[in-house]
Amino acid sequence: VTGSVLFTNAKVGKDAKVVDTVLMPGVVVEDGAVVNRALIADGVRIGKGAVVGSADSKHIELIANDVEGVN
């Protein structure tokens, strides 16, 4: 977790990367997921191995729904 804000009960799994991101209350970032430059809404689940946002983006991506992981 780098340059990010994690609210109450936000959880980040093993080997997950969270960079320049805000995780609202109850967010779960599962193992191996990568989240860059994003605002993740309350209670959203980012699945195992999922990739959200881009380190090169000038914009912040808003994620309001669960994101499926990679099998």
Would you write up a description of this structure?
The protein is an all-beta fold and 71 residues long. Helix content is 0%, strand content 34%. It contains no helices and ten strands. The chain has strands at residues 5-6, 11-12, 17-19, 22-23, 28-29, 34-36, 38-40, 45-46, 51-52, 61-63. The strands form three sheets. The protein has a four-stranded parallel beta sheet with strand order 1-4-7-10, with no helix packed on it. The protein starts with a strand and ends in an 8-residue tail after the last strand.
Could you name the ranges where pLDDT drops below 50 across 5 or more consecutive residues?
A: none
| Shape designation | globular
Largest sheet: 4 strands, parallel
Report the average pLDDT across residues: 96
Terminal Cα separation, in Å? 23 Å
Query: Helix fraction?
Result: under 10%
Number of helices: 0
Name the strands of the widest sheet in spatial order. 1-4-7-10
What is the ordering of alpha helices and beta strands? EEEEEEEEEE
Structural class, by secondary structure, is mainly beta
Radius of gyration, taken over Cα atoms and rounded to an integer in Å: 10 Å
Beta-strand content estimate: 25-35%
Count of extended strands? 10
